[in-house]
Design a protein that fits this description.
11 helices; D-Maltodextrin-Binding Protein, domain 2; elongated; five-stranded mixed beta sheet; about 20% strand; 2 domains; alpha/beta
Length: about 260
């Protein structure tokens, strides 16, 4: 009788559908809109739910290192992902670059619209006026701010602007300052400029003025759902996911022009 009961229980368990994995994705703030649609597409295809946590890559990386319940990390630069690999918090084998981006200057005034390359002769300081500040993500920690400082330094503009900054915790916060007119200019990603109708692109930073802007994704080493997390990370470079990213202005890896 006991053997029959056990066999019956096994048969019932095998007949039950597999429990959908609930994934928590920590992603750079600049990926917010695109990642929301990616999550919806993944949920529709797999039945696995996705919870997004969006913030600056530096903030998310530190939270992951402190044990925050993340299954996947998508960074806006390679340095923070490298650091988490060194800390043993993400799996190097699961790491994959999923997109690239461009760095642009944005303005609140529509009359400032331009797609010209920013050069050493671009008068950003003059465009700020007597008291205006340049909105920028934290230049010592947040990827967008690090790229911005590197580009402005390369062009010889940093020293004149370093005392006229309005630093923010992430790139979307810098974008918001310009959109609200609280800062006349800001440095953000091209995708951020596309996402906000209250700003215009006022110039494009040359690609050789800063390192390539890449978005690596990787699975945390402590995820309770490693198979589902690895599947999601591996899906991000797929044609279906890349089509979604392209709609939000993200470029394929190695295609920043």
């Amino acid at each position: 009788m006991i053997q029959i009961l056990r066999a019956t229980l096994v048969a019932i368990c095998l007949a039950l559908p597999a429990k959908a994995a609930d994934l928590t994705v920590f992603a750079a703030a600049s990926l917010g809109d695109a990642m929301a649609e990616l999550a919806m597409a993944w949920e529709a295809d797999t039945g696995h739910s996705v919870t997004l946590v969006l913030a600056g890559s530096s903030t998310l990386a530190r939270q992951i290192d402190a044990g925050a319940p993340a299954d996947i990390f998508v960074s806006a630069n390679e340095s923070w992902m490298d650091w988490l690999v060194e800390q043993g918090q993400v799996s190097a084998e699961s790491r994959v670059d999923i997109a690239s981006n461009r760095l642009v200057l944005v303005a609140h005034d529509p009359a400032a619209a331009s797609t010209a390359d920013i050069t050493s002769q671009t008068d950003i300081l003059g465009a700020l006026g007597a008291s205006g500040r340049l909105a920028i993500a934290l230049p010592e920690a947040v990827p967008a701010g690090i790229y911005a400082k590197t580009a402005l330094t390369d062009l010889g503009l940093w020293d004149g602007l370093s005392t006229r900054l309005a630093p923010t915790d992430n790139v979307r916060a810098a974008l918001a300052l310009v959109a609200l007119g609280e800062a006349p200019l800001g440095v953000v990603y091209a995708t951020d400029a596309m996402a906000e109708l209250r700003v215009v692109t006022a110039g494009v930073f040359p690609q050789d003025s800063h390192p390539p802007i890449l978005y690596p994704a990787a699975v945390t080493t402590y995820t309770p759902s490693p198979e589902a997390a690895r599947a999601f990370a591996a899906w991000l470079p797929s044609d279906a996911a890349q089509e979604i990213l392209a709609r939000y202005g993200f470029l394929p890896v190695g295609m920043q022009e």
